[in-house]
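pinging the channel bc i need a second pair of eyes. not urgent but kinda urgent?? the chain im working w is below, pasted from the shared doc
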Amino acid sequence: MRDPDRERGGSPETRRPRQCDMLFDGSFRGKGWFPTEKTPQYYFRWMSGESSATIELSVDRRAALEILVYVPYIIDFDKWDALSFAVDGVPTPFVRENTAVQQSVEMNYYTLRVPAAPHHQGVTELRIDAPFGGRPSLGDPRRLSIGVCRVSARPSPHPSVERARASLDAAVAAYLHTLADHAPVRVVA
């Protein structure tokens, strides 16, 4: 049988998918998590209050990645920015947003930019550190920190595309500002 990847010199490692989407249902691989729970909108898992948990991602690392971590629940609302992330043991900067809508539910999500690793072997390990935890209620003995419902990894936009987009945004803003300065003012009484 013909294998186009092998004909191009690809190995099984280089044939990993360019992107992946983990929905935290039964196909989950990682450590430091409680069993899957289900809401009417999605599946999720609580991270244990042990401060670190991992997720294994099977994704091609030859290109830079953008990893998004969707977090609908947190045990302490003052700790959204206390989380930290590492990819394959390397601390990874992130940006937190709170505008993600996942199946009609608003939640926070974290975007991580991961540089390319052309010689990477095996799965990519995402580690989440949450240096806090607590019991959700008196009747629940678990120590929890955050609930995660989805992790997505995809090729990161090329830096030249980002620069071009920023340049275009600046040019459009300057043009609109010029129009506003020269536009006739019409007073409606």
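so Residues 9-156 form a domain with the Jelly Rolls fold (CATH 2.60.120.260). and Residues 159-182 form the longest helix (24 residues). — does that match what u expected or am i reading it wrong
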